[in-house]
């Protein structure tokens, strides 16, 4: 992918572009908001990594201008820890995903590549729904009761397998094979850890849990009956 990094901390920008380059992408960077916007419109990258706090033109303004120009690039925003308001504004302004600083370069590359798998137009099969839980497969986004649920790429993959067939019980082995395929580094214990993580993110704030354990069989997702 051709990736534009708009980040005013030169060292961070350099680390990000070199990590992306190592993974086979064509990455360049700008350290100023106005220059970044100009480059985004002129170079039409596939994806933009956009810091929100920038000199001369802030990230939210850039997002607005990109939307106005119908820029097709996917946008991953970078936000400061705890800056929930900006993150929400960014996602509402059309960003596809976000990362909170400080982040690991591995996580950044994973998010970028997950966004890269996104196709052009979502179809019905790309929008999964169980009760008030919604998954936009193409945009790799999950919402519960209208609120964004931030999942790691693998958490997302596990949830996607469950949501594709609500009510069907998946054994740990089957989930493991579906999500990790031939990667022997993972075992069924990993599945248990991921289910615990998903429960924390998807169910813990709600009175009716959607993810259910079927004793000695496995897991399923279904609306409360
Ligand atoms: Ca900044």
CATH homologous superfamily annotation of the largest domain: Response regulator
CATH class of the largest domain: Alpha Beta
Query: Could you name the ranges where pLDDT drops below 50 across 5 or more consecutive residues?
Result: none
Percentage beta strand: 15-25%
| CATH topology category name of the largest domain | Rossmann fold
- Helix-and-strand structural type: alpha/beta
The DSSP helix count reads 8
Strand order of the largest sheet: 2-1-3-4-5
CATH architecture of the largest domain: 3-Layer(aba) Sandwich
The ordered string of helix (H) and strand (E) elements is EHEHEHEHEHEEEEHHHEE
Helix residue percentage: 40-55%
Q: Please, what is the average pLDDT?
A: 87
The major beta sheet can be summarized as: 5 strands, parallel
Whole-angstrom Rg: 19 Å
Distance between the termini: 45 Å
Name the shape in a single word. elongated
Ligand identities: calcium ion
The number of distinct structural domains comes to 2
* Total DSSP E strands: 11
What does this protein structure show overall?
With 225 residues, the protein is of the alpha/beta class. It has two domains: 2-116, Rossmann fold (3-Layer(aba) Sandwich); 127-221, Orthogonal Bundle (Arc Repressor Mutant, subunit A). The chain is 41% helix and 22% strand. It has helices at 10-22, 33-43, 59-68, 84-92, 105-116, 153-164, 172-180, 188-203; strands at residues 2-6, 26-30, 47-51, 74-80, 97-101, 127-130, 133-136, 141-144, 147-149, 211-214, 218-221. The strands form three sheets. It has a five-stranded parallel beta sheet, sandwiched between helices. Strands 6-7-8-9 form a four-stranded antiparallel beta sheet, with helices on one face. Strand 1, helix 1 (10-22) and strand 2 (26-30) form a beta-alpha-beta unit. Helix 7 packs across helix 8 (188-203). The structure holds calcium ion (CA). Calcium ion is lined by residues 8-9, 51, 53-54.
């Amino acid at each position: 992918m051709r990736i534009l990094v708009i980040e005013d901390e030169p060292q961070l920008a350099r680390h990000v572009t070199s990590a992306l380059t190592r993974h086979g992408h064509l990455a360049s960077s700008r350290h100023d908001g106005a220059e970044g916007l100009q480059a985004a419109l002129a170079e039409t990258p596939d994806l933009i990594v956009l810091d929100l706090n920038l000199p001369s033109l802030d990230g939210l303004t850039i997002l607005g201008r990109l939307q106005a120009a119908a820029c097709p690039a996917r946008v991953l925003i970078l936000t400061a820890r705890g800056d929930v308001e900006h993150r929400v504004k960014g996602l509402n302004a059309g960003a596809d995903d976000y990362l909170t600083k400080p982040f690991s370069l591995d996580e950044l590359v994973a998010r970028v590549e997950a966004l890269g798998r996104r196709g052009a137009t979502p179809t019905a099969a790309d929008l999964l729904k169980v009760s008030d839980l919604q998954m936009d497969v193409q945009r790799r986004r999950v919402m519960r009761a209208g609120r964004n649920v931030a999942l790691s790429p693998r958490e997302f993959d596990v949830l996607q397998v469950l949501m594709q067939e609500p009510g069907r019980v998946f054994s740990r082995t089957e989930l493991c094979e579906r999500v990790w395929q031939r990667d022997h580094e993972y075992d069924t214990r990993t599945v248990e850890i991921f289910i615990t993580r998903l429960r924390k993110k998807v169910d813990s704030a709600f009175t009716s849990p959607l993810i259910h354990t079927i004793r000695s069989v496995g897991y399923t997702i279904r609306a409360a009956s």
